[in-house]
Design brief:
The chain is α/β, with parallel strands linked by helices and 324 residues long. It is built from 9 helices and 14 strands. It starts with a strand and ends in a 7-residue tail after the last helix.
Amino acid sequence: MLDDDPAFGCVRLYAEFMTLHSAPARTLVPVLPKQARAFRDGLCRYDGTGDLPCRRSRQGRKQLMIRPGRRSTNVQFPGFAGDALAAALDLPADGAVQAYALFAHCFTCGKDNAAASRISDELTRHAIGVLRFDFTGLGGSEGDFANANFSSNVEDLLCAADYLRQQHTAPQLLIGHSLGGAAVLAAARDIPEVRAVATIGAPADPSHVAHLFASAHAEIERDGEAAVQIAGRTFHVRRQFLSDIAMQPQKARIRNLRLPVMVMHSPTDEIVGIGNARTIFDTARHPKSFIAIDDADHLLRRRPDTRFVGQLIASWASRYLPHT
């Protein structure tokens, strides 16, 4: 699969090399666009040294087979209130799954946002199947967002874990982005199969999201509900949402988690400040790790950032996931 990578000024070509001779069975190499086109047109061969000379081969040519991407299937399962939740199950192209992960998206985002999709894609390249889904009332899921809250998000995660447990294998890795990171920290204790938890740009406390619609707090308290603008979209937020995020015992949950935790955060995060990562890290017990996502924005819009995050999570989690 060819994937534009402006940060390195090249194209990364993920490929398998099949030959009658002694070429490596699978190789990950960076190639220039010109070389990629030459391979595609059958004009080049790979000599097995790690370099990519672009020249014709008259005999013993090694045939290039581009490795296919992930296999993604749309699925549904009932959420906390019985509404059908839309989900995508991403599996490695060859079907060989070492473990399953649950991915919780950022506040008011969705399973198909760039960060969720790209990180999931990277994880499948490391034999990790990923279930990413839309929380109640968001994306393709049924239900009313106004009736949802942080507690219901946690319940939706438990429903997602039940789906994997019944249809495949229970998730052993939880990954959450932004408020989704807070949600996986809260849900982990109720999914006994979980072996590790990774957060990305997560707030230390769910109540942090209230600042996104601070100007509407008075109206919400007075009328019980208000229409608020978040990331250019309109959402209806009710008083129960504010009450719910204010009563979460998040610090105690993190302190008592007793699971390996990796905290990933951008030092320049403009939505959830880096201090939140420090609080999560200091509160969690060992083993714990912190990774700075240098120069990234909160939503991880740049492809190199999501690739970095996906690769690091896969490498870190491999220490705790079962090996086949």
